[in-house]
Input
Amino acid sequence: MRFGMSGAFLPANMDDFTVEMAKRVRDLGFSGVFTRFRANDPFQTSKAQCQRLRDLLAGEGLRMYQTTGYWQCLIHPDEGQRWQAVHTLQEALRVAGDIGARGIDTGPGSMSPTGPWNPHPDNWNPGSREQLIKSLRECAKAAEDQDVFLSLEGHQLVTLEDADVMREVLDAVGSPYVRCDFDPVNWITLKTVFQTGPAIDQMVDALDHRIVSAHAKDIVIEDRLTLHLETVPAGRGLLDYRTFLRRLEALDPEYPVIVEAAGEKDLPEVSAFLRRTAEEGGIRIIGPQ
Output
């Protein structure tokens, strides 16, 4: 199993990524990164910029596990806006290929004007699912051409509301390059928050080989009079990490598990927790090299 990290001290601009940052990633025990690079417009990012970063990471024995798909609205009913989202994702795949990334991470987007992961009633209508499938089919060739996984992340607040819907969408797209980036916390509900092990088993049973990578964070339920499920760093919540890591390892020992929802001060504790849990389960940790 491979462990990667995201966020924390990693920069928003790829031009600001330094050898010193790469060494910190290694020192924390991670073998790769997921970077969002919000400051890099995919339509304007040059091959030379990407090559510099690619060479820097290779020189430190690190991998770019994921970069961003920019979370554009792939479900929009307006064909002009949907096509612009598709074009953005295609360019994001080009940038990811130039960097040498294993995959990109993107969600379906949301019809909410306040953010790509925010709820809106139109997120769950049949038309939104159809638009998503159409958009992904139009991006599949770009992913194949770049040899980069288009890794989809789901969440109960958007169109990919559970593992069954994710499976149905991926099967309708029908591309080996359009797969699932598995983040079980995003699908944990009130009914499953105290039984996350069986919930993870159900999700993996539904998705199986459609999974190609995973995100590692945790979840707590707060003592409040309305439902509040909050994300926290891995190891500080209710997610059954023994089941999570065991099921991923059984799919493929090469799959990266990428830490999210952890600040710089949290990373040593999170890294130690993941390594300890993996070792207790008899899972061999690969890297950093």
